[in-house]
Specification:
By secondary structure, the chain is α/β, with parallel strands linked by helices. The chain contains 5 helices and 11 strands, in the order βββαβαββββαβββαα.
Length: 198
C-alpha cells in the first residue's frame, strides 16, 4: 500500500479490497491523475482509494506524473523520551529536508536534523517509514521523505534555523506532543503513530 497526501487528504493505492476509512474507491486504471487531484482539492472528499491489480507497476505509473524529491528526517527523542519538534509556518513539524546529490539517506537525515535544530550527538536508530505528499512548486512534486528514529543526549540550548522559516525548536513531553499533533500535518501523525507502534 502507498499513501500519498494532497492537502492532508490521502490517495491510497492498494491491492487490498478493504476500505476501513470509507473513502471513495476507484479502479486505478480508470481514473485520470489530474482528476484525482481536482477531486481532492475542490470536492468534499476526505480521501480516495485506488484499487490496484499490480501495485508496483501502478505506483511507477503514478509517480511518472510527478517530479520526485527525495528527503530525509528524524523523530528524535532524548533520555526522558521527549520528542524534538520544530515550528514553521504556524505548524508543528519534525526536522527533515532534501537529500543532496551524492548524499546517503542516513547522512541527509542526520544533517537536516542538526541544521534545523542545532542539536548534536545524534544516534541513528531504525528506519520508521517513508511518507509521501504532493505539492505544487513550479510544477507538481512528490516529496518522498525517509524517516528514522534518532536519540540524543545533547543538553545545550537549541536554536531554530531561521533562514528555513523555523521559528521555534524544542523537546515536548507526551502531553505537549499530543497538543502539538493537533496542529501538524497528516504525514507527521503517521510518523508518530509508527514510532508508538514500534
Amino acid at each position: 500500500m502507498y499513501k500519498v497526501f494532497v492537502n492532508d487528504k490521502p490517495i491510497i493505492i492498494t491491492s487490498s479490497s478493504k476500505n476501513e476509512n470509507k473513502y471513495a474507491v476507484y479502479p486505478f486504471k480508470k481514473l485520470l491523475f489530474e482528476e484525482i487531484l481536482h477531486k481532492l482539492k475542490h470536492d468534499t472528499l476526505k480521501g480516495i482509494v485506488l484499487n490496484s491489480t499490480d501495485l508496483e507497476k501502478d505506483w511507477a505509473s503514478f509517480t511518472q506524473n510527478l517530479e520526485v524529491i527525495p528527503a530525509a528526517g528524524g523523530l528524535v527523542h532524548n533520555a526522558k523520551k521527549e520528542i524534538l519538534f520544530i515550528y514553521r509556518n504556524g505548524v508543528w513539524d519534525l526536522p527533515k529536508g532534501k537529500i543532496e546529490k551524492g548524499e546517503s539517506i542516513t547522512t541527509a537525515a542526520i544533517r537536516e536534523v542538526e541544521e534545523e535544530c542545532s542539536i548534536f550527538n545524534l544516534k541513528l536508530g531504525k528506519k520508521l517509514l517513508t511518507t509521501y505528499h504532493i505539492y505544487n512548486q513550479k510544477g507538481l512534486k512528490l516529496k518522498e521523505t525517509h524517516w528514522f528514529l534518532m536519540t540524543s543526549d545533547y543538553n545545550k540550548a537549541l536554536s531554530p534555523q531561521l533562514e528555513e522559516g523555523i521559528t521555534e525548536v524544542c523537546f515536548k513531553n507526551e502531553q505537549e506532543t499530543h497538543i502539538a499533533l493537533q496542529n501538524t500535518y497528516a504525514n507527521i501523525k503517521l510518523v508518530y503513530d509508527t514510532y508508538k507502534e514500534a
